[in-house]
Structure formats: structure tokens, C-alpha cells
User: Which sequence fits this backbone?
């Protein structure tokens, strides 16, 4: 990297820091010429307004992560097992979870007993609306940067940044991580928990309709597993049970609302032509939306959360 690029980068970091200290996000957005449809400052009254909609949905006592210290109810298990046609019974689930915590530390407890949540989080979806957005520095500025599935950074740093503190995945979407990134597993069946145990130890040899990596690189100490009870809560409370179950992206966003004080959302929704695609590849079916997930309800909920200033929604290009 040339000296000039280093200097310009440092200048950017410096001005971002100063600007954020002044808590003047609008100026940053103007500086980077970033679009922000939902102007958080247009609605000074919103915070004190009747927030029934939000309060009726949010439930801070639902634990986002699996832990040896809280048990799933059989009811919740019976909901969860339908997601991907789990055949095995509740006892088997419990045995697998017990095995899981023989290998992985119960980090979730640490998070849940943190006196404070993470200060500010960027949740980065995979939409093609990130292309040419120049969001990179803005995304990397957050304490926590949550990415989803195959969402890559190499070659796309200007638009998506290069920092990943948490990567959400399921076995069929798994990728290798560096030693400082949290692997956040979203499990949809018992096999997914078994995969996590094996993929980080002896190697996994099970089958699914999609290929599954037998081994992955990740720091075992930083593994977190989403609690099926949290998935059910998102489906019940936030989507009124619409669709089969919530998309990974939507659950990631709700997770952030629970573990972060401030949530900034990037790379969700279609691009400006209305196409649904990934920023690093063209999907064949650009009308795919979110398949069996309730895409419209999810999008409307994100819009509403933005309107009510529970998150900041960067719509990209
Ligand atoms: C808040 O709004 C709901 C309907 O949206 C209404 O039923 C309720 O009475 C309102 N509460 C207050 C305190 O204004
Ligand atoms: C919130 O979640 C807890 C734990 O799952 C549950 O016991 C409680 O009934 C929920 N509260 C509401 C208002 O749904
Ligand atoms: C969870 O279940 C185990 C047995 O499966 C039991 O030993 C433990 O006490 C339960 N924990 C809670 C918090 O209910
Ligand atoms: C659960 O399934 C196992 C076989 O995988 C069986 O041995 C066990 O009896 C079943 N438990 C219950 C409670 O049905
Ligand atoms: C991200 O980019 C910055 C600036 O170019 C660099 O200092 C840092 O090492 C990069 N981080 C990663 C994880 O690649
Ligand atoms: C990764 O981090 C852990 C601590 O979380 C450490 O024990 C381990 O040596 C590190 N591995 C590498 C390859 O740096
Ligand atoms: C997006 O959609 C438009 C019209 O629907 C189409 O012409 C265009 O090729 C699509 N772009 C991409 C990148 O798929």
C-alpha cells in the first residue's frame, strides 16, 4: 500500500471517529455520500411516542443462545423438529446438546451476564444492493460486524468492509473462519448440532440434500449456537407465524437487536432494479426472494423497525 493510501485511510478513520464522537451520523453519511432513506433525525418525537408495536413483540427474556443452563421445552422442540423434518426424538436432542457442551465452552452465559450489550453492531446481509455502496469503512467502524453464510469480504472491501467478528452459518453454508471470528451456528435439525461437534474435531460424514463440509477451521472457544426457542420466538412474535420459518437474515437481525445497543443494517432486500442477488455472484433466479420464508413480512418488519428507530437501515444502491 502506498503512503498516500495509508494517509487517506488514517484520515478517514480519524474523521469517522471524530464524527461519531459528535454523534453526528448524518454528517458521516453526507461525507461518504451515502444514501439513507430513513432519516433518524426527522422524527424526534418517535422515542417518546407510543411504542406498543415494539413492546408487544420484543421479549428480552428469550435466550438467544443455547446454554447448558437453560432447557428447551418439549413444545418448542416439536415446533423446531418440523423445520427440516427431524425424525429423532426429544431425548436424542437433549443428549446431543449435552455432548455439544462437553466440547464447546458455554460462552453464551458470558454474553448473557454481560452488564452491557455490545455497543454497536453492523449486520451485513448479502444483497447486490451493496455493490458500489462504499459502505466498507462505515461497516468496519462498528464493534461487532455480523456476516451471514458465504458473504465474503476479499475483493469487496470498499463496499462491504473486511472485518468479521461473527459469522452466522449452518452446515450447508459453512466456510472456514479466522481465529478471532465467532462461529454462530443456526441449527435446523439435530444433525446440525452433530455436524458442529464433528466438523471441528474428527470430521463429519453425514449426508443432506446439499453437500456438507466435513471439516472447517474455526476457533472452538468462540462457538455460539442459536437457541431453537429464539427461532420460534422470532416466528411467533415478529412474523405472526407467517411462512414456514424465518430466514437466516431475519433471525440474524433480531439476534442483533437482542445483543446490541445499536443496530445498523446493510445488504438487505433487492437492488434498485428489484433484483434479488448476491453482491459477489449473480443468482440465476433474481426473483427468488427468500423462498419459503415470509420475505414480504420480514421486509416490512425491517422497515417498521427502522421507522421506529430501533435500527438504522442502509438501503444501498
Ligand atoms: C398505544 O397505541 C395502541 C394502538 O396502536 C392503543 O391501543 C393504546 O391505547 C396506546 N397507548 C397509549 C398509552 O397511548
Ligand atoms: C417472554 O419469554 C419468556 C421466556 O421464554 C416467557 O416465559 C414469557 O411468557 C414471554 N413473555 C411474553 C410477554 O410473551
Ligand atoms: C435441564 O435438564 C437437565 C436434565 O436434562 C436437568 O438436570 C437440569 O436441572 C435442567 N435445568 C433447568 C434449568 O431446568
Ligand atoms: C427416543 O429414540 C430412541 C431411539 O433413537 C429410543 O431408544 C427412545 O426410547 C426414544 N425415547 C422416547 C422418549 O421416545
Ligand atoms: C482490514 O483493512 C485494514 C486497512 O486496510 C487492515 O489494517 C486490516 O488488517 C484489515 N483486516 C483484516 C481482518 O483483513
Ligand atoms: C486461537 O485462539 C485461541 C484462544 O482463543 C488460542 O488458544 C489458539 O492458540 C489460537 N490459534 C491460532 C492458530 O492462533
Ligand atoms: C435486473 O432486472 C432487470 C429487469 O428486471 C434485468 O434487465 C437485469 O438484467 C437484471 N440485472 C441483473 C444483474 O440480474
Assistant:
Amino acid at each position: 500500500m502506498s503512503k498516500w493510501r495509508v494517509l487517506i485511510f488514517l484520515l478517514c478513520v480519524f474523521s469517522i471517529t471524530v464524527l461519531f464522537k459528535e454523534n453526528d451520523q448524518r454528517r458521516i453519511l453526507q461525507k461518504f455520500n451515502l444514501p439513507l432513506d430513513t432519516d433518524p433525525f426527522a422524527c424526534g418525537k418517535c422515542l417518546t411516542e407510543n411504542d406498543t408495536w415494539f413492546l408487544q413483540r420484543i421479549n428480552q427474556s428469550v435466550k438467544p443462545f443455547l446454554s447448558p443452563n437453560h432447557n428447551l421445552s418439549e413444545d418448542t422442540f416439536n415446533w423446531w423438529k418440523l423445520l427440516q423434518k427431524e425424525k429423532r426424538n426429544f431425548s436424542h436432542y437433549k443428549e446431543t446438546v449435552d455432548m455439544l457442551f462437553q466440547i464447546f465452552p458455554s460462552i453464551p452465559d458470558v454474553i448473557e451476564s454481560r452488564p452491557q450489550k455490545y455497543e454497536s453492531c453492523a449486520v451485513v446481509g448479502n444483497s447486490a444492493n451493496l455493490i458500489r455502496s462504499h459502505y466498507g469503512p462505515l461497516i468496519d467502524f462498528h464493534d461487532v460486524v455480523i456476516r451471514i453464510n458465504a458473504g465474503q469480504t476479499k475483493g469487496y472491501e470498499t463496499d462491504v468492509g473486511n472485518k468479521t467478528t461473527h459469522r452466522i452459518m449452518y452446515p450447508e453454508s459453512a466456510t472456514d473462519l479466522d481465529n478471532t471470528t465467532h462461529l454462530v451456528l443456526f441449527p435446523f435439525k439435530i444433525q446440525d448440532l452433530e455436524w458442529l461437534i464433528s466438523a471441528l474435531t474428527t470430521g463429519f460424514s453425514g449426508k443432506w440434500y446439499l453437500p456438507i463440509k466435513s471439516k472447517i477451521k474455526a476457533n472452538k472457544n468462540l462457538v455460539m449456537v442459536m437457541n431453537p426457542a429464539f427461532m420460534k420466538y422470532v416466528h411467533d412474535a415478529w412474523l405472526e407465524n407467517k411462512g414456514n420459518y424465518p430466514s437466516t437474515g431475519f433471525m440474524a437481525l433480531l439476534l442483533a437487536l437482542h445483543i446490541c445497543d445499536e443496530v445498523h443494517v446493510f445488504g438487505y432486500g433487492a437492488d434498485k432494479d428489484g433484483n434479488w442477488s448476491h453482491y459477489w455472484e449473480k443468482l440465476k433466479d433474481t426473483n427468488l426472494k427468500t423462498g419459503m420464508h415470509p420475505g414480504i413480512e420480514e421486509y416490512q418488519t425491517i422497515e417498521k423497525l427502522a421507522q421506529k428507530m430501533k435500527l438504522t437501515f442502509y438501503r444501498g444502491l
Residues 1-39 form one domain. The chain has twelve helices and seven strands.
